[in-house]
């Protein structure tokens, strides 16, 4: 798809490539799923753009709402064909969640999510119990995201709410791309619980702790303090990537090809009119918009 260069209205700049925004930036805080891969394969253009930024002296910290430790996300990127020269480090909501679990070592826990997410508890000595005995709940996703929705869990959430059980949401994303489909994530379950009156601690984007960790990582890698106006976030979710960047006070490049493609894209290309219409309906707006990440 071809982006039309220039202002798209509502203060959102429509750009052809990352190169238009990279000047004056020292750190990229980049989303993973939907930006550099779709769960099936890595996007060559996106990886090449990040590698080009690094080659010019910049630092790239990948920031993901994956409910797993960073090394497992790195392994997944390897399998999908994303080269390691595209990034310097990875910070995940799983890493932030592990810190929250460690702080609750004296409480028994119930996990909502698939078995593949169990490594989030490795080495933390968690005491797993039934949902009726839990002192807190960690939600990493749905048990079966192919067939279930957040509503599947309403009865379970009602029981937790009756006991005022806190939920830690290890992945605040509402949906994620899997090939050409949108799959519900832990954030959808957590949002329903919160709507019902439940207490939720969100470990990942758009909330502050994961951005603080990413900024700290970037400064350590750069071995220098990095001003917020020299940081650029990149992501495909208005609710997590854009909202989180705006709250953190940094510029953000929105990738339209991701989970909001059905809202933003015209059949063949982005236009100033389509971007302007979309931006006018958003609670928060990105600094710039691109169809897909490339240099």
From TrEMBL:
Any keyword Hydrolase? yes
Q: What are the entry keywords?
A: Hydrolase
Coiled-coil residues are none
Membrane-spanning regions, if any? none
Q: Which domain of life is it from?
A: Bacteria
Pfam families assigned to the protein according to its UniProt record, in alphabetical order: Hydrolase_6, Hydrolase_like
**UniProt GO molecular function:** hydrolase activity
Q: What is this protein called?
A: TIGR01459 family HAD-type hydrolase
Organism source for this protein?
Answer: Camelimonas fluminis
